[in-house]
Amino acid sequence: MEETTQNTQVMHREDARVFANRYRCSVCWGGLVCDVITNDIHDENYLNASVHCSNPECTGSDFVTAKYVEKRRSENDSDFYEAKRNLKEALGLPDPNAGKTADQLLHELGF
Ligand SMILES: [Zn+2]
Predict the structure, then answer these.
(1) 42 CA to centre of ligand 1 in angstroms
(2) Across the strands, what pairs with 39?
(3) Residue pLDDT, tens place only, 9-37
(4) I need a labelling partner for 102 at 20 to 30 A (CA). Which of 22, 38, 58, 92 fits?
(5) 101: CA distance to ligand 1 center in Å?
């Protein structure tokens, strides 16, 4: 892999396609895109591609695995709901389940 600009990596086209599916931008966690780079020998098997963040305004130049992003987002969602539950009274957040019976709550959950 060869670095060409601050936020672009160049590699073989097939490697770039696999890389873009498995990795995300380390700054915004957004998807990656591949831009095929023309070469001098005009053989598709030897075309290179640049891989970079899909967000044109992002300055991210490093990558993290898609699994890492999924794990961190899941942890963040969990932290958000825990904080919301713990700070509900302090922040004056409305209880979306206030006044509902146990049967109504079970029905909303699909039981
Ligand atoms: Zn990005």
Answers:
(1) 31
(2) none
(3) 777 778 888 999 999 999 999 999 888 77
(4) 92
(5) 45
Nearest to 16 by CA among 40, 42, 46: 46
**Cα of 86 from ligand 1 centre, angstroms:** 32
- Rounded Cα gap, residues 5 and 8, in angstroms: 5
Q: What is the pLDDT of residue 77?
A: 94
Say which residue, 2 or 45, is predicted with more confidence: 45
Could you tell me the pTM of the whole model? 0.64
95 alpha carbon, distance to own chain's centre: 30
Listed by start position, the domains of the chain span 1-93
Residue 1 CA to ligand 1 center (angstroms) comes to 19
- Across 14-44, b (16+ Cβ under 10 Å) vs e yields eebeebbeebbbebebeebebeeeeeeeeee
CA distances from 49 to 3, 27, 39, 85, 106 (A): 11, 21, 10, 47, 52
